[in-house]
Amino acid sequence: MALIRIESGDWLKNASIVGLNKVLNHKKKIGEKIELDGSYIEFDSAILENFEEAYFQTLFVEYGKRGSWHKLVSYSDNLKNLIKDDIVIEDIEKLNKIIEDIKKIITSNSYKSAYLLLEDGGWIEGKEKTLNKLKVKKKDNPLDFKDNMEVQINLSLEIINWFNKAEVKRVILAKNVMYDVIQPFWNNVSILLKTNNKSNMYELYKNDFINPVSDYIESDREKYKNACFTCDNKIKKLSKPEAFDLTWLVKTGVDMARKSSHFWNMNGDAYICPVCNLLYSCLPLGFKMFNNKGIFINSNQSLEKLIAANTTTLDYENNNFEALENLSYYNVLNSMGNLSVDNMDKEFDNIQVVKIDGNNGGRPYSFNILSPRIMRVLYLNRKRLESLIKLRVNITDKYRINLYNEVITRIHDGKNLFDLISKLLYMYLDDRKFNNIRAINNIFVINNYYLGGTRRGMKLDDISKFQSYGNELKNEYARKKAESKLSGITYRLANAIKTKDSGKFMDTIISAYMYIGKGIPKEISLALADADRLQNVGYAFIIGLQGEIINKKKEGDVSNE
Ligand SMILES: [Zn+2]
User: Fold this and answer.
1) How far is the centre of ligand 1, averaged over its atoms, from the C-alpha of 219 (Å)?
2) Closest CA to 323 of 339, 334, 333, 312
3) What is the mean pLDDT for each group of 10 consecutive residues in the chain (561 residues)?
């Protein structure tokens, strides 16, 4: 047995290391060590025994619940609930829908090819023909269908039980993740080669990726003349199983295209060693995938941080790719730990985002660099952002937004957050349809950091000052037992901001201060002379008027740029 060390490198290598690390940690036994040290990962080759099992298991842990196997077996409870005496038409329709789904799933090509790998695969073949939807009409008496329903429910449950058998699950889930997760990254190779359709994926993976490594590390490599294209390991021959080309990875983008035209065809060196071949097989696990799309964030600081940046730390339901992408940015911020202001620029320099779109055959990968200025804004506000992650707002009965997503999407698109603040404030004023003034305040503060570079942003000191004025006014109204007037005032102020009418804003302020018999704070009059500042000063005042003031000590003030 030997130690295998893999150095970090370009995004392709780094994403693969993240994936490899997941698999190794999944199967690691007590006493087995995986060392991460800044720029490399190192482990004993003994850990590669049964790696194929761990490889698929890791994929199941991350993606099993999204696959069709999971959907199929989770019908069990719905079916059992349909066994009852008081049947209504809707129950029969529900059952029909489930039957339709089960039939569709168990007759798909990938399932059919999986049956051939199973010892008792014959049992399931043709079973869909015994499953039949019930032909029910609106005028029928649902109770007449009770017996028939039970027959179909029991048949369905019998099928589900079969899919729950350990070996069936092991093979079918593997098929699920092969097509749902691995396919966008690989090109007709090994388990995804059409002609290998009927071979056991675990054995194929072992033969194609693991065995060459085992043979390789036991051989005497010193005398070999060729070198691996990516890691400089010595290789014996430029053909399988001593060396591999990279054509089995789908178009990895500009870099690889350039490499292939300049070096590939003319230069025999463009071959990789068995270790790199195994490494790259873990590429799909380095990305976070949702419906054929994935994201990997290549932060070049250290492998430890790279892994943390690509590991979801929050239990949060991602219901679309955009949400997954936005959460990835939070992971990056969270993986940074506590940075000093001086360190930030270095840490946020050159963070590369790699996305894959499995639906885009021509150019599946896209790349961009995160803006250090924006990362800095988000980093300084990471606690505020975290407080927004689980906040959902019902805009209408059917339309819900997630506040974290709304904020991140706007900022990455180069837009400020005033429209969001305004919308939430109106919902707050409208019978507390959104009842979280603190969240509005958090968004407002983030917006000020975001505007920081553009003159219009306020420092925390100023925000807190204008919020205090609003809050003092509120207290005076409370003293006069006139709190009920505050919502009308707030409304008028919000309208004045929305229409950018500082005259109207000022009129409302003047009459409010007249009511409490006090003079208007000079700063407010001065600030409103500058039309650009109306939104900031105005919202700060309103938020204070509604009782919320930022706690500067707790929040920590960091000067804006
Ligand atoms: Zn190599």
Assistant:
1) 15
2) 312
3) 92 96 86 88 93 96 93 97 93 97 96 95 95 92 93 97 97 96 92 89 96 92 87 88 85 54 48 94 95 91 91 69 89 87 84 94 90 91 92 89 94 94 94 94 94 75 92 95 93 94 93 93 84 88 90 50 33
Q: How far apart are alpha carbons 174 and 191 in whole angstroms?
A: 10
What's the gap in Å between 183 CA and the centre of ligand 1? 23
Beta strand 352-357 with 293-298 is antiparallel
Question: 41 CA to middle of ligand 1, Å?
Answer: 14
**232 C-alpha to ligand 1 centroid (Å):** 6
Check: pTM over 0.85? Answer yes or no.
Answer: yes
Distance 227 CA to ligand 1 centre (A): 8
Could you tell me the CA-to-CA distances from 536 to 207, 414, 555 in Å, in that order?
64, 18, 19
> Residue 36: beta bridge partners?
41
Q: How far is the CA of 346 from the centre of ligand 1 (A)?
A: 30
What one-character DSSP code corresponds to residue 219?
A: S
Ligand 1 centroid distance, CA of 286 (Å): 18
Contacts for 225 with CB less than 8 Å, ≥ 6 apart: 234
For 89, the enclosing helix (H) or strand (E) is helix 89-106
User: Which residues pair with residue 227 across a beta bridge?
Assistant: 234
From ligand 1's centre to the CA of 274, what distance in Å? 7
Q: DSSP strand E in 261-378: where?
A: 288-290, 293-298, 352-357, 365-369
For residue 242, the CA-to-ligand 1 centroid distance in Å is: 11
